[in-house]
Amino acid sequence: MPIDRRLILSINWPLLGLAVVLFLLGTLNLYSASGYRLEDGMNMAPYFLRQLVWGAMGFGGMLLVMVFDYRHLKTIAWPLFWITLALLVAVFFAGKTIYGARRWLDLGFMNFQPSELAKIAVLLVGARILAREREPLGFVRLGYVLGVGLLLAGPVIRQPDLGTGLSLILILGGMILYRGVTPPVFKTALIAIPSLLPLAWLFLHDYQKRRIMTFLDPTTDPLGAGYHIIQSQIAIGSGGFWGKGFLQGTQSQLRFLPERHTDFAVAVFCEEWGFAGTMVLLTLFCLFLSQMVNVAKDARDLFGSYLTAGVFFYFFWQILINTGMVLGLMPVVGIPLPFISYGGSSTLVNFCLVGLVLNVSMRRFLFKQN
Amino acid sequence: MSNIYDNTSQQPPRAGLLLLQALIFLVFCVFAVRLWFLQIHRGEFYARKAQENQLRQESIFSPRGLIRDRNGDLLAVNEPAYALGLVREDCPDVDGTLRQVAEWTGGSFDGLKELFVKNQKRVKGFEPMILVPDLSFDQVALIDTNRLRWPGLAIQVRPRRQYRHGKLLGHVLGYVAEANEDEMERRPELALGDYVGKQGIELVLEDRMRGVKGRTQFEVDVTGRRLQERVLKHPRAGHEISLSIDLGLQELAMDWLDEEAGGVVVMDADTGQLWALATSPSYDPNAFSSGLSAAQWAELRDDPQHPMQNRVIQSVYPPGSVFKHVVAGAGLHYNMIDPKEVVHCPGFTQLGSHVFRCWRKGGHGNVNLERALVESCDVYFYRQGKKLTVDRMSEFAFASGFGTLTGIDLPHEKAGNIPTREWKRKRFGEGWQGGDNLNMAIGQGYTLTTPLQVARFFAAALNGGKLLKPLLLKDEKPVLQGQIPLNQDQLDLLYRALVRTVEDDRGTCRRLRTAGVIVGGKTGTAQVVRLTDALKALKDDDIPYRFRDHAWMAATAEKDGRRFAIVAMIEHGLHGSSGAGPVVKALIDYIFYGKVTPKPEAQKAKSRAARLLSYNATGGGRAN
């Protein structure tokens, strides 16, 4: 497919720029988070270098995703759904067990996690179903959408991988909210969801219950489960207004802060750049999200708009949960912060999804093509 | 494929778009407020918390001042000791850790727990509490390899006192041990586990030798590993001390004492400095600095030989004939003895119905003052004592430094006793008897002296009557405490008698003769009990140890302007000359010729056997 000059001109440059800036800030922060002080000098773990390599690959993936017209995804949505479902079932029977969880398929040359594919499947199928008509969702349509989502989320939760399973439902739920529901559905959900929450408690593992209890009162176990929360808040709080300076964060450099290059990476940023720096970062994230809202608004068709909304929620939930956890507003859950936390495949997926949104945005004027 | 480009009038949901924007706004506000709360509102609180995580302070121990002898030989040094400490804040499981420590060190968990609870308040936050003051190398290795599994445990290196020569100077040096509650109460600069002087010079010169602790601040990482360190205050080492003691002389004195109960003093007659201050048996002060067990302490305390007693300053003995020089001095001072006066000694004298015997059964014949001193004639001094009476003898004795403390810089000195009429009335409720005068004149009865007092008196005989404070430090200037009330002629007379006692063929101190050295001496034999006739009939070796007389030898020695008073006192040594004389002779040889004469092995074996017999038979005796 020849690349139209107009396509390049209508790329949403702010979105692209924000993604790159956030990624670079994250990598810079990783440089600090992966070092720690020794008796003489510093030791450097090579995380930031690897992150740069993954980022470059992600950037390439993003460009690839931008090349084809996103509307072709409509056709592959359902096949992808069924393939994913088949793979999840395959995992259930023939998956590889690592650390007590059966999540991987051994492909010979690499281990593959079908639950990653499920995120894309839920995005595409969700957008495909929701884009079909404009009316708010009634009970029947809602049941249908949720049923499709649960078909994917169910096996994932059974693996067990509660985090990914819930994020599938959250993404889909976000898209449903974006789509809108009829008032009766809204009212029912308003009553049903809170009353079902205690029921969910029964399905949690002991360690998950403990995390929630520790979140409610971290001081009960300052050296055990509450340690993450306490040390994270000390790191952030001690940053003060201007921060301690790049590479000067004592909580991270002396390794009091756990998981500082993955889940708690942003706490390192807060410590070293202070309130001022963190507000800049928060603003960048908000601009990044609101650019997606712009794309969703201007999308040529509803499929593109819902697709964008799905990606929006994909990022939104991660930012909300991770930052909330780091700031001590939510229980400790192993969810990374996009672009800031270290992670190869998540960096790749992040860029590809940004590519998807850029794809939608650059083709907003091309409706006359057919 | 046909419907993928179907975009007929599809507008995105307006409410949905609003929702997304509202969500962004909400997240921004919630997080911004939370950030403001953590970083601005509570920023200082968390900054302090971070600093508590990161920075720790610790004391730097100051090395205690070294102690040397007068020739610079080291007597007390500091060696590194490994103590096991516990940082409470780093320790997630105190009980489990204490249990593990008990297992490692062979201690009891209850004991450690009690220590932990008791001392909890005394230890500052993030500072190690000393659980075991002294670890062996094996224990250090064992604990160090397991340290990462037991967070909170810290091995601390502290200087520990080591006494190079053990028992040799136990009573002079004293010892250090961990400060107790009282001492910490009194001196706020002391922390739990600090060593302080408890005895001897270590106690007396505590302030000079301790030094001042420093303080260091260091950065730790999460594993407790130390990173950069910054000294906030440098420690100041304690002052070095040079004793007046001569190590070789002390060694020789202790060799001759050879675990027998007794003491030796060597005093420089011109300065008062002590070149040797030996007491036997002694104890090893090293045992105290590494922490004495209850059993070890009980053994020391209950030893029938009383090794914790410094016999030179804390034991008081009747001076025996050594006191005759004091009586002679009193007679000269009060003009009541004419040196030319001749007294006939038939071997006894009578007072009323009571017979007082001279030590020589056949008597000394006609003796004047000098002869009486040289041959130690009892009858002559019975006569003088009767004339002088207790009043003059006591007054002169007090003036000669008896019955009062010498003021030596060692704790728990005893003053001894010089009796007076009043004293006896108070003590026994009865008046002074005529016979008491006679007993006092030969140094028996109620008169009690320490060997150090005797040495000071004989030093005065050499230096023109000056009573000098006995000094233990090499750089101390002489301290004049008094003057014996005799003129130079009278002093010369007494001194001549001392020298004659050595040089005369009938003198009692002939064994002290040393070529090239002017030696003077006086023996003393102090009765422990009034010997019954049955005991008197026995040969020396057959008298039970605890009934044997104490042996005194007080000597002066001078050569080329160096003058020394030397006193040896052997409990139950039988006779002054044979019991205490050989030590003094060996010391004189060493002082002036550097000649080392060890005690013959045969003699050592003999006295050991006598002691052993005595303990088995009687459980040991003790002189007052």
Please characterize this protein's 3D structure.
The complex is a heterodimer of chains A (370) and B (624). Chain A has 14 helices and five strands. Chain A has 370 residues and is mainly α. Chain A has one domain. Chain A has a three-stranded antiparallel sheet with strand order 3-4-5, covered by helices on one side. Chain A has a two-stranded antiparallel ribbon with strand order 1-2. In chain A, helix 2 packs antiparallel against helix 3, helix 4 packs across helix 6 and helix 5 runs antiparallel to helix 6. Chain A is globular, with a radius of gyration of 21 Å. Chain B is an alpha+beta fold. Chain B has two domains: 187 residues, Penicillin-binding protein 2a (Domain 2), CATH 3.90.1310; 346 residues, Beta-lactamase (3-Layer(aba) Sandwich), CATH 3.40.710. Chain B is built from 22 helices and 21 strands. In chain B, strands 2, 3, 4, 5 and 10 form a five-stranded mixed sheet that branches. A five-stranded antiparallel sheet of chain B has the order 12-11-21-20-19, sandwiched between helices. A three-stranded antiparallel sheet of chain B has the order 1-8-9. In chain B, helix 13 crosses helix 15 and helix 15 packs across helix 17. At the A-B interface, helix 7, helix 10, helix 12 and helix 13 of A face helix 1 and helix 2 of B.
Offer a quick outline of the entry:
With 370 residues, chain A is mainly alpha-helical. Chain A is built from 14 helices and 5 strands.
Between the first and last Cα atoms of chain B, what is the distance in angstroms? Answer: 123 Å
* Net shape of chain B: elongated
**Total helical elements of chain A:** 14
Q: Helix- and strand-based class of chain B?
A: alpha+beta
- Count the domains of chain A: 1
What's the CATH architecture of the largest domain in chain B? 3-Layer(aba) Sandwich
Quickly count the domains of chain B: 2
Structural class determined from secondary elements of chain A: mainly alpha
Report mean pLDDT of chain B, rounded to a whole number. 87
Beta strand count of chain B: 21
Taking Cα atoms only, what radius of gyration of chain A do you get, to the nearest Å? Answer: 21 Å
**Largest sheet report of chain A:** 3 strands, antiparallel
Largest sheet of chain B: 5 strands, mixed
Beta-strand proportion of chain B: 15-25%
Averaged pLDDT of chain A, please? 86
